[in-house]
Amino acid sequence: MFEIFGIPSQALFGQLLIGLINGSFYALLSLGLAVIFGMLNIINFAHGAQYMLGAFTAFFLLQYAGLNYWFALIVAPIVIGFVGVVIERLFLQWLYKLDHLYGLLLTFGLALIIEGTFRNFFGSSGLPYRVPDALQGGRNLGFMFLPNYRAWVVAFSLVICLGTWFLIERTKLGSYLRAATENPTLVRAFGINVPRMITLTYGFGVGLAALAGVMAAPIYNVSPQMGAELIIVVFAVVVIGGMGSIMGAIVTGFGLGVIEGLTKVFFPEASNTVIFVIMAIVLLVRPAGLFGRRA
User: Fold this and answer.
1) SS3 of 130, please?
2) The pTM is what?
3) Over the stretch 25-71, which tens digit does the pLDDT of each residue have?
4) Max Cα separation, the chain?
């Protein structure tokens, strides 16, 4: 073991790893928010509750259906994404031409209903979810111990984030999605069902939140409060990166996770507020966010 700036290397790199893990969830969740806001112009405050639903779906699949973590990674995002489709069809489709405040209030109300219902049945304490057998244990790198599951979370989150960016920014489908938000009449002229595309986009964004919930379950346990504790930070990440910016969500999510982790080492008292301090500074210097486009 050696020291860096007077801090043991294991403590420093351990917090760096925690920062990367938190950054993985910040990036996935803020990516879902950016997709939904960028394509639908809706501020989805129910995102934290949908993240929690993903974790509970994985728990139910294991507890009652005997389906393990790997099945849950596929099934939970599809199930919760379908729930998102139902929410969009029943409620959100009527709000697209109204002020952002209406969407925020509606999704905030949905989040309270979902979280309150689960808290009523399961309480506030967390339910354990076991790390899959294939990812048990870890590796001693000499300067730190790297748990296999945490390394998997960081790597898989990065793959999903970059894959989503490529889909939206570099494919024909992504170009149709972007065009549908700016000129839906023109896109309809190409024979594309714009309302269906918008509905599936919301379902996809919700599915990303559910995927993050499944990945978080073995680390943080499954709790009705897990989304509420995270969503405010994730909104700060989205604002810093730029509302609706896909790459901004990814870079800012991972970057702020690392900054938060390092702050816990060098200045622990500020670790809970550093992201909001950065948000205030960014808004003063660049109100549209680091990657946002100025109106």
Assistant:
1) coil
2) 0.93
3) 999 999 999 999 888 888 999 999 999 999 999 999 999 999 999 99
4) 65
